[in-house]
Amino acid sequence: MARVISVEAERFPIAGTFTISRGSKTEAEVITVTISESGRAGRGECVPYKRYGETMDSVHAAIEAVRESIVGGIDRTALLGAMPAGAARNAIDCALWDLEAKLSGTAVADVIGARPEALETAYTLSLGEPEAMAAQARANAGRPLLKVKIGGDNDAARIRAVTEAAPRSRFILDANEGWTDENIEANLAFAARHGVALIEQPLPAGRDEILRRIAHPVPICADESVHETRDLESLIGLYDAVNIKLDKSGGLTEALKLRDRAQELGFAIMVGCMVGTSLAMAPAVLLAQDADFVDLDGPLLLARDREPGLVYQGSMVSPPERTLWG
After folding, report:
1. Tens of pLDDT, residues 76-99
2. What Cα–Cα distance (Å) separates residue 235 from each residue in 94, 226, 273?
3. H or E element: which one contains 25?
4. Low-confidence spans in the chain with pLDDT less than 70
5. pLDDT at residue 1, rounded to an integer
6. E strand or H helix that includes residue 244
7. Model pLDDT, residue 286
8. Active-site residue among 102, 147, 149, 248?
9. Domain locations in the chain?
10. Catalytic residue (choose from 25, 50, 102, 245)
């Protein structure tokens, strides 16, 4: 039976406002791909990201451009050569994984050799004034790992505010390329004194050579600087860890290769996400089973998730049920 593909734009409200150094948003805009064959359907979700030149329209168009190949039976390996990394390929790749699982009756976890267990995920605090961020931290002080969006002119005050408000939590700082050569060493030292566990992408991608020459009192994780496996060699000596996101790598197929090669090269592994629903998180939960840091809190930031969704208990996220994905 021939394949059929459908593409749908969906919006899910965020609980409040989600703010990073590049701006704010109040809803998650996602594109969902469904590929059907022989009475079974596989789904994948992606989140177009403006930082990488993506819009809802451009991602939709990129998917439509390979419609004939998908209907004609393209597999995940061939897809890697047919499309660049990014959100569009991610949605198709994850839909193909899901479809294969449903056609074969073999779970994706079994195919990739994962023994999925519940994982501890970070919970993200939006960028704001120190007092507002302290309130966010205080409200989530029972969570073991908090990820804090920073990247402004007053980051030392923000770091102090959140660490004092949640003294039992560990912290990841995410600057989203918001620091500079002039302030990075002072910020790193201040973060180290306050027990921060990891700092994501402090400097703009491609303008981070100073990281090779300065001390890393806190491990530094590449985010915007790493998309695919081929990016890794250039990051040696600059970064201590890499943040793997399916929307950057262009799907689980490439993300698995990226993870394995990164581990071979000695990088610590973080598996992260854009703000999306449980459908987007599901394959990432399988990818993250042996990660050093997990940041898959997208559904926790939404006012409404998909049903059925992933099960979150506090900061623990369980592997997906087959009715959701995989």
Report:
1. 999 999 999 999 999 999 999 999
2. 27, 8, 21
3. strand 23-37
4. 1
5. 62
6. strand 241-244
7. 98
8. 149
9. 4-108, 119-317
10. 245
pTM comes to: 0.96
Give the type of residue at 142: G
Q: Which amino acid is at 223?
A: D
Q: How far apart are CA 127 and CA 143, in angstroms?
A: 18
Kindly report the CATH class assigned to 119-317. Answer: alpha beta
Here the tokens at position 152 are 């402004």
What pLDDT score was predicted for residue 18?
85
- SS3 letters across 138-155: HHCCCCCEEEEECCCCCH
CA angle 63, 65, 66 (to 5 degrees): 75
Has 149 been annotated as catalytic? yes
Architecture of the 4-108 domain = 2-Layer Sandwich (3.30)
In DSSP notation, 287-319 reads HGGG-SEE---GGGGBSS--SS---EETTEEPP
The pLDDT, as a whole number, for residue 23 is 77
